[in-house]
């Protein structure tokens, strides 16, 4: 980039300023720039790679001074890159600087970012109109460049002729847009609360089913333990009573196991019958009364 003339002893080129964010370089340079130096700074920032937000620069006193006077066109052009679109430029060209191809492409990228915040699937027809592009091939090349420049993240759907956007660059916001942004954030918070409440209900329901399963498993384990003890005690009694060989005892053990299982089942059935009889008796008494 060409060095700029400064009115004070400040760095005269971007290469002499080292900061983490590209915009910070121009902010530091703007602190000591006046008049034509500020105007030249604006031209450079409009085509600087990696600079896609301009709000901080617009708020600087030295830049605000250009709003009226011979360099008002420079200020309006910077304002266009901060908040406007390529279509705004085409409709009001006399109010802005004549953009070179690099600056035009950057403004088109920013326009794609603006459209991506309005809808996640942008038809080619909308992009062709907004960006003033005549054929689909050039449009797809521009979109691919925007993806590689981290303006948007998404993919091209060439069959449906649209762009599917996952994430888009956040552009500068005007002060009058604060109320609308607050409403969007409030809606988002409400949606998060609804999701959290739904998750809590599902967690409580899952915990309830888990406790029921644990109790059921414990009941089954207790019954298995009781059956094992019963079988063991019965086998020991049979061995001590018979005192015979292993061959003569094999059949009785099987029969005894079946008998224990049948007895356990009969006990459960008896309990159920007794409960049903009690219920019948209660019903009979209540009807007699």
Structure description:
α1 (22-30) packs antiparallel against α2 (36-47) and α2 runs parallel beside α5. The model is unreliable at 1-19, 246-254 and 281-289 (pLDDT under 50). The longest helix is centred in the C-terminal third of the chain and has 65 residues, at 178-242. The protein is elongated, with a radius of gyration of 41 Å. 19% of the residues are buried. A three-stranded antiparallel sheet has the order 1-3-2. It is mainly alpha-helical. β2 and β3 (162-168) form a beta hairpin. The chain has helices at residues 22-30, 36-47, 55-58, 61-64, 72-83, 86-91, 101-118, 124-131, 136-148, 178-242, 246-288, and strands at 121-123, 152-157, 162-168. It is built from eleven helices and three strands.
Q: Which secondary-structure class do the elements indicate?
A: mainly alpha
Instruction: Indicate the radius of gyration in whole angstroms.
Output: 41 Å
User: How do the SSEs run, as a string of H and E?
Assistant: HHHHHHHEHHEEHH
Strand order of the largest sheet: 1-3-2
**Tally of strands:** 3
* CA(first)-CA(last) distance: 106 Å
Percent helix range = 55-70%
Largest sheet: 3 strands, antiparallel
Task: Using the alpha-carbon principal axes, give the shape.
Answer: elongated
β-strand percent reads 5-15%
| Low-confidence segments | 1-19, 246-254, 281-289
Tally of DSSP helical segments:
11
Q: Provide the residue-averaged pLDDT.
A: 79
Features:
disordered N terminus; three-stranded antiparallel β-sheet; disordered C terminus; mainly alpha; 289 residues; 11 helices
């Amino acid at each position: 980039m060409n060095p700029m003339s400064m009115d004070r002893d400040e760095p005269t080129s971007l290469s002499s300023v080292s900061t983490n964010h590209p915009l910070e370089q121009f902010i530091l340079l703007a602190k000591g720039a006046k008049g034509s130096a500020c105007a030249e700074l604006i031209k450079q920032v409009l085509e600087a790679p990696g600079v896609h937000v301009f709000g901080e620069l617009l708020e600087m006193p030295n830049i605000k001074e250009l709003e009226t006077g011979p360099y008002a066109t420079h200020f309006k052009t910077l304002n266009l890159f901060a908040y406007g679109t390529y279509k705004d430029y085409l409709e009001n060209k006399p109010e802005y600087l004549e953009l070179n191809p690099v600056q035009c492409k950057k403004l088109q990228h920013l326009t794609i970012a603006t459209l991506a915040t309005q809808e996640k699937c942008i038809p080619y027809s909308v992009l062709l109109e907004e960006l003033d592009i005549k054929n689909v091939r050039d449009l797809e090349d521009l979109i691919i460049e925007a993806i590689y420049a981290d303006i948007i993240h998404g993919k091209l759907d060439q069959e449906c002729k649209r762009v599917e956007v996952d994430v888009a660059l956040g552009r500068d916001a005007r002060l009058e847009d604060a109320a609308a942004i607050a409403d969007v954030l409030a809606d988002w918070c409400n949606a998060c609360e609804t999701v959290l409440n739904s998750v809590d209900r599902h967690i409580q329901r899952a915990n309830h089913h888990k406790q029921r399963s644990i109790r059921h498993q414990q009941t089954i384990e207790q019954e298995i333990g009781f059956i094992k003890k019963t079988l063991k005690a019965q086998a020991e009694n049979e061995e001590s009573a018979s005192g015979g060989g292993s061959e003569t005892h094999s059949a009785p053990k099987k029969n005894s196991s079946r008998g224990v299982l049948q007895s356990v089942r009969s006990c459960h059935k008896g309990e159920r019958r007794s409960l049903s009889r009690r219920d019948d008796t209660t019903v009979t008494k209540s009807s007699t009364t």
